[in-house]
Amino acid sequence: KILIANRGEIALRVIRTCKEMGIKTVAVYSTADAESLHVRFADEAVCIGPPASSESYLKIANIIAAAEITNADAIHPGYGFLSENAKFSKICEEHDIKFIGASAEMIDRMGDKASAKATMKAAGVPCVPGSDGVIPDFETCKKLAVETGYPVMLKASAGGGGKGMRAVWKEEDLQPAWESARQESKAAFGNDDMYMEKLIEEPRHIEIQIVGDSTGKACHLSERDCSVQRRHQKLTEETPSPFMTDELREAMGNAAVKAAEYINYEGAGTVEFLVDKHRNFYFMEMNTRIQVEHPITEEVVDHDLIREQIKVAAGIKISGKNYYPQLHSIECRINAEDPYNDFRPSPGRITVLHAPGGHGVRLDTHVYAGYMIPPNYDSMIAKLIVTAQTREEAIAKMKRALDEFVIEGIKTTIPFHRQLMEEPDYVEGNYTTAFMNDFEMREPEEE
Ligand code: MV4
């Protein structure tokens, strides 16, 4: 019996695979989610608190209590919330509840970005040149910047996703950047350890999916290109990457497997790389959870990654072979946000919903007509995934699916994605992490 310590589409996603495997499920929900689909789809459901995440989905004691009273054997944390919380992983272990994710030690080791980098370096994974670990003081920082050569990137060791990160182009800007980055990191993570890297200009964000088993064996399931981001929020992802070559895929896949096996990684994980315009790749971060964008990998290698996670957690060995894309898949994250007003959140009740369908169209969502989107949580309400033989066919399919996708009662980012599919640089596959810097929404057609 598996308790899903999450909500929304990912809770539904895990429940679906559990049902196919004949595994009983327990949903947990806040009072704001009493009418949510994951509550209805699960075999049992336990209310764990009021709407605030801190009082519900992040409340370790309440989740453990729910697992105890329902006799759950394991907990699947999904992504976000407690999925990379070492304390939670530890407490599950102490309560003899299998945490379907990484061990507390692994979460800590990969969560501390400077130590993760040192580990990768030791494993022989290419890393961005820069400081050797955390920088002790500003004098050292100044010296390191000269050795590394401007421009440099200052990064918070407890950071990730861009928080506490500063690009510095010239020496006079170094001290203010050092001070403000440390303050931001201290405020956000209670830790102001900083490290430094050579700045990679306009990189691509290409990540490799890996799965490791309890014998220390690991395999990779190829890449996902996640370069189209806005303020460090991924908007759309695809595989194969339009920038990939067969030899680069081999090199990145092998580096990711080498890293996973070096640390005896168990479960599903993602090794994120920065790739420069010369196709040099460098370790960026490692995520010890299932990711939002995992469906595009599932679609092109025809592998259920949640099933893999459950099997590995049950001690079942992986075959060890790697998986390569046989098709092309694109995911568009549909958020309850208004793209015509700086993507500001737009919670409320969905009055009309028509879901797209047809060959090669997958919609991972928990919303339905009449559903009230609570303002308490992340604004993502659906993931529209399309899969076809070629990138061109996938883009045509995405356009058609977006045109079919009707959601009324709230604003969504559907119009943004529809315009993206016609942006020349996107259509050409010619984009980096800088792509959204100069993107402008076209005014909506008159109703
Ligand atoms: C970098 C970089 C350039 N050079 N590191 C952003 C958050 C975290 N994942 C690391 N990030 C970056 N690290 C060096 N040495 C540029 C980024 C970056 C970025 C990376 C991936 C996806 C989107 C990004 C947006 C801005 C900056």
Please supply descriptive tags for the structure shown above:
single chain; 447 residues; alpha+beta; Rossmann fold; Dna Ligase, domain 1; D-amino Acid Aminotransferase, Chain A, domain 1; four-stranded antiparallel β-sheet; 32% helix; globular; binds ligand MV4
Structure explained in plain terms:
The protein is an alpha+beta fold and 447 residues long. The protein folds into 3 domains: 2-100, Rossmann fold (3-Layer(aba) Sandwich), CATH 3.40.50; 129-198, ATP-grasp fold, A domain (Dna Ligase, domain 1), CATH 3.30.1490; 204-438, 2-Layer Sandwich (D-amino Acid Aminotransferase, Chain A, domain 1). 32% of the residues lie in helices and 25% in strands. The protein is built from 14 helices and 24 strands. The protein has helices spanning 8-20, 37-41, 60-69, 86-94, 104-111, 113-122, 138-148, 174-189, 246-262, 294-301, 305-313, 391-404, 414-420, 424-427; strands at residues 2-4, 25-30, 44-49, 74-76, 98-99, 152-156, 166-168, 194-198, 204-212, 218-225, 229-230, 233-234, 236-239, 267-275, 281-287, 328-335, 337-338, 344-345, 348-349, 352-354, 361-365, 372-373, 380-388, 406-408. A hairpin with a 5-residue loop joins strand 9 (204-212) and strand 10. The longest helix has 17 residues, at 246-262. Ligand MV4 is lined by residues 128, 153, 161-162, 165, 197-200, 203, 205, 229, 232, 274, 284-285, 433.
